[in-house]
Specification:
426 residues; mainly alpha
């Protein structure tokens, strides 16, 4: 008896084509050319493509090839700052020349100062025009290096995730894929926050470059330039903080769940990157992100991640405190403004140091709770020692001798009164 084809019952209907196609055949939506067949195979492919596209987005947000900062010195955004810096440098140079001319009787020191001012003014003017191009080249180099370090082959973080999507041990586990998708979605949000803060910071520091470089015209004091360059380079090289996860990539190979754990760890690293890498407003932004996460989710794991990225700190304005402190945005900008003014020869005004109101209240509450706990602990220890005799103390000895009699204090004797028969003493 010939075998009966069950698909014959579907002849004349659209389902007959799907019934007769094999799992490896090409066809309309509903089939998969790489195996798996039907809607299930399509779902697997869609999830894989979604993860790969999100990984590309994360890589492009953390270290983008193009920055918001102007790429040329004749840009409409950079040109007003360039004009201001050049005229400021020339004005400072003219002031130095006039002062040297009025004090020419001092001889060699004034000639040396005028020569240094001339050379550094030329350096400052040339540097103002080259800053945008140098920043663009450095940004492209950082982007290329970041891509090589995190998305070049299977030994990198994103490359290992791509490989595990095709040949992971838990590839057919839907829970592992859901965890990976959730971790990538959260990492995408933190990557966007990193992108926004970095781009705004780089734009601000590039635009203020002419004003900072103009301070060199006074005599070559590089203090303000060093502070400016330190903060700009910190912003640009901040994405390399994710290199802390590179040693753990080999341990995560072959498991989508462990890849998800690494992505969660990358969230804490990116938040810490904002905390330390973004000048002035980094702690504020990281703290706001932590507060938002803690108020939106009750998950202890999420709270632990954001607390690792944005730790508890005190904000300081001037004077350091015993506990770990950070500067308020106004205080941080004031300190750098003081460095810039000092490079121009202007003595900045020092402000008294104190904690902000919120930090002072938090400090008082914390110290009060710690003091109360300490007092309670000391009280319990004292009560325990009072009720429990010490085993090392010698036993009390009873005295066998009779107690010494108690002598009553002598009463004062009254003075002798003369008798009536005796004559009074002259």
């Amino acid at each position: 008896m010939a075998d009966h084809d069950p698909c014959d019952a579907l002849k004349g209907t659209p389902g007959y084509e799907y019934c007769t196609r094999g799992p490896g055949s090409d066809g309309p939506p509903g089939t998969s050319s790489g195996g798996g067949g039907g809607l299930t195979g399509n779902a697997v492919d869609n999830a894989r493509h979604l993860v790969e596209s999100l990984i590309k987005k994360i890589s492009g947000l953390v270290a983008p090839k193009d920055a918001w900062a102007p790429a040329r010195s004749d840009s409409g955004l950079y040109e007003p700052f360039l004009w201001l810096g050049q005229h400021l440098a020339v004005a400072i140079f003219i002031c130095v020349v006039v002062v040297c001319a009025l004090t020419a009787w001092q001889g060699a020191p004034r000639l040396k100062q005028m020569g240094a001012s001339t050379g550094w003014t030329l350096v400052a003017v040339a540097g103002m025009a080259s800053v945008p191009g140098a920043v663009m080249l450095l940004n492209k180099a950082v982007s290329a290096a970041f891509t090589t370090a995190f998305d070049s082959d299977e030994s990198t973080l994103f490359g290992a995730i791509r490989k595990d999507l095709h040949s992971g041990a838990d590839l057919n586990n839907p829970l592992a894929k859901l965890l990976l998708l959730a971790a990538i979605a959260v990492a995408l949000a933190f990557a966007f926050l990193v992108f926004l803060t970095r781009q705004l910071g780089i734009l601000a520091f590039v635009c203020m470059a002419p004003v900072v470089l103009a301070s060199l015209a006074r005599g070559g004091d590089p203090t303000a330039v060093k502070a400016w360059a330190q903060r700009l380079l910190g912003l640009m090289f901040a994405p390399f903080a994710l290199l802390l996860l590179s040693p753990f990539v080999q341990l995560a190979k072959g498991s989508l769940i462990v890849d998800s754990v690494l992505l969660v760890a990358s969230d804490a690293v990116m938040l810490r990157m904002i905390f330390h890498g973004v000048p002035y407003f980094g702690p504020k932004v990281a703290g706001a992100a932590r507060t938002y996460v803690e108020s939106r989710t009750p998950s202890p794991l999420a709270h632990a991640v954001v607390r690792a990225g944005a730790p508890d700190v005190y904000e300081k304005e001037n004077m350091p405190r015993a506990l770990r402190t950070v500067d308020t945005p106004g205080r941080a900008m004031s300190r750098d403004r003081g460095v810039l003014f000092a490079a121009y020869g202007i003595t900045p005004k020092e402000r008294a140091g104190r904690l902000t109101t919120q930090s002072a209240v938090a400090k008082e509450h914390r110290e009060a709770s710690e003091t109360a706990a300490r007092r309670q602990q000391l009280r319990e220890v004292r009560e325990r020692f009072r009720t429990t005799p010490s085993p090392d103390a010698p036993p009390a000895r009873r005295s066998t001798s009779a107690p010494a009699p108690v002598v009553a204090p002598a009463q004062p004797t009254p003075a002798a009164q003369p008798s009536s028969s005796q004559p009074p003493t002259p």
